[in-house]
Amino acid sequence: MLDTVRSDLILLRELCSGERKSTNILKQLAQDLHSDIIPKRWRRYNIANITMTEWIEDFKRRIE
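Now predict its structure.
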């Protein structure tokens, strides 16, 4: 899971810096994050209805 989140964020950073061309997957990922929605690619298990911000805080605690 950590690898998926990390690689997706790296791809988004590359997109924003102009190093990578946009794809439908990256567009959806960016839209989800902008809308404070947990991307489907990051949902391994069923979770409560929480915002992306809350999910990131919880994810950070879990990996520490």
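The mean pLDDT is 89.
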